[in-house]
Amino acid sequence: MHVQDFLSEERRGAVLRSLRTDEGTLSRDYLTAARNVLRELVAMPDLIQRLPLERKAGGYTRNLLAGNDAVSIWAIVWGEGSTTCIHDHHCSCCFGVVSGTVTETWYRAIDATRAVPVEEQERQAGYVACMLPSGPNIHRMQNLGAGDAISIHIYGFDHEAHASSIETQYTAVNG
Ligand SMILES: [Fe+2]
């Protein structure tokens, strides 16, 4: 598979069909399909870096690659120093790192709006992971490296029905 093909209507349709299962976007089959799509995409960093992705100095941008009423696939470009809020998800969230390093910090909620950091990992190019809304899934992603990082995200939400995958934002409290 090539990104050009992935971006063609035909290939997009095939990828989206591969992500559609009878049990929806929380099932084992769905997660397996999402990981397979991500593994293919992170294996072609040169082609992804050549895509006309929006970039924003100091911030991150989300670029919709494909979507339907069940899933959406995004390329996120992380500018140097960019960070998300601390958040969890209302849907399944699978991602793979294409280039650069994304630092992921995991948190544990102590009440409805506050969370304590429990673990920090550097996700290198090639890394693929999935998380489910049933948790644990409170995290923050940052680009602490030099230069942009790019990751691909497959979310179990309709981009026309939801603004993002974020359910709740938390404030960090040191444990
Ligand atoms: Fe997230």
TrEMBL record:
<keyword id="KW-0883">Thioether bond</keyword>
<keyword id="KW-0479">Metal-binding</keyword>
<keyword id="KW-0560">Oxidoreductase</keyword>
<feature type="binding site">
    <location>
        <position position="139"/>
    </location>
    <ligand>
        <name>Fe cation</name>
    </ligand>
</feature>
<feature type="cross-link" description="3'-(S-cysteinyl)-tyrosine (Cys-Tyr)">
    <location>
        <begin position="93"/>
        <end position="155"/>
    </location>
</feature>
<dbReference type="GO" id="GO:0008198">
    <property type="term" value="F:ferrous iron binding"/>
</dbReference>
<dbReference type="InterPro" id="IPR011051">
    <property type="entry name" value="RmlC_Cupin_sf"/>
</dbReference>
<dbReference type="InterPro" id="IPR010300">
    <property type="entry name" value="CDO_1"/>
</dbReference>
<dbReference type="InterPro" id="IPR014710">
    <property type="entry name" value="RmlC-like_jellyroll"/>
</dbReference>
<protein>
    <submittedName>
        <fullName>Predicted metal-dependent enzyme of the double-stranded beta helix superfamily</fullName>
    </submittedName>
</protein>
<dbReference type="GO" id="GO:0019448">
    <property type="term" value="P:L-cysteine catabolic process"/>
</dbReference>
<keyword id="KW-0408">Iron</keyword>
<feature type="binding site">
    <location>
        <position position="87"/>
    </location>
    <ligand>
        <name>Fe cation</name>
    </ligand>
</feature>
<comment type="similarity">
    <text>Belongs to the cysteine dioxygenase family.</text>
</comment>
<feature type="binding site">
    <location>
        <position position="89"/>
    </location>
    <ligand>
        <name>Fe cation</name>
    </ligand>
</feature>
<dbReference type="Pfam" id="PF05995">
    <property type="entry name" value="CDO_I"/>
</dbReference>
<dbReference type="GO" id="GO:0017172">
    <property type="term" value="F:cysteine dioxygenase activity"/>
</dbReference>
<keyword id="KW-0223">Dioxygenase</keyword>
